Protein: DUF3596 domain-containing protein
Amino acid sequence: MGRGAKLRFPGIVARESSIKLWFMYQGKRHWQSLKLDPTPANLKHASKLREEITQKIAYGIFNYQEYFPDSKIAKDMIEATHAPTFREYSVRWMTANSHLATSTLHDYRKRLDHYVLPKIGEKPMNTITYGDIAELLGSIEWGSMKTRNNTCTVIRQPFEMAFLDGAIDANPAARLKNLKAQKEPPDPFSLDEANQIISIMRKDCDMYANLFEFAFFTGLRTSELLEVKWGDIDWQLSVVRVSRAKVDGEVKGTKTGQVRDVELNSRAIAALNRQKVHSFLAGAQIFINPNTRKSISRGCVLHQYWGRIMRLSGLRYRNPYQTRHTFATLNLMAGANPMWVSRQMGHTSMKMLLEVYSRWIDLADRSREKNKLEIMLNVPTVCQYLEKSS
Structure:
């Protein structure tokens, strides 16, 4: 090397047959090589070039391609400007899944618009890293793990589509892990509390009283209650066939996709008989909106009414879904066969019932075992029998 190699300029490094310079750009240190001999004049030129670059970076007008057109970074930037953005692929993915239930698509759109697109929507797909996604997820205060996990889904799938299209080399979201969501345990009403709620409703609105009495004593989901029709009732066998549900105003199959027959007890039949005067002749939905006399469009209508009645009752607030849990726990505590209860509820397997209601199954079992001992204690022994007969 010549004498110039001994000169020192900030950010400039002399090599045997070239000059390297570095600068900070977009939060990263970038090294670029100049095919110039490290002479004093060339080192001075490199230093001035670096000063020019750092000034333009400071003013926000630096163009990488202009200064280093043959560099890999410049080529990647050119490619990135032509690459589809996450927003574009999210639209394509939503379009490809337009066959899904309206409620599902609405939920996907909500997650994208609220959590994802504001952060990475305009970024080219091939520039988004796993770290970018992890940072996005970590910056949000999630109301529940279920919300976070559902958001992971709407991030993963557009990337997977882009990967299968060959637009990106790998799916950076493929390694996202769903966090275990802690399910809220059942919080059922006692029989006395259920009767108290129905009694208050009976004085306020007969139709809603019938609906919720039917809910308490059949265990139907709220979405199923909205779509049960008079034609679904078999009066001779005392069963209701449950095959439909209404979610966000859209009629669809049941949550599990299965049709089931729910046996009707005396309380459920009584609720139906009282409801006949309101909707039987129309022959459509059993439970209708008392104000419009038409079908109840959305579950939120029931939630609003339920909230008002709960305030009037003075009971601790629990949501309407607890009517379903109440049905299950009342039956289990009464000694009903868990397998029968599971079928009534429409569970896909006994495992779900055992996991959700194990506490009440255990209480019922303990009560039965205790009663066996009590019966034995109250049965006279042979000695007692002989004493009485002598």
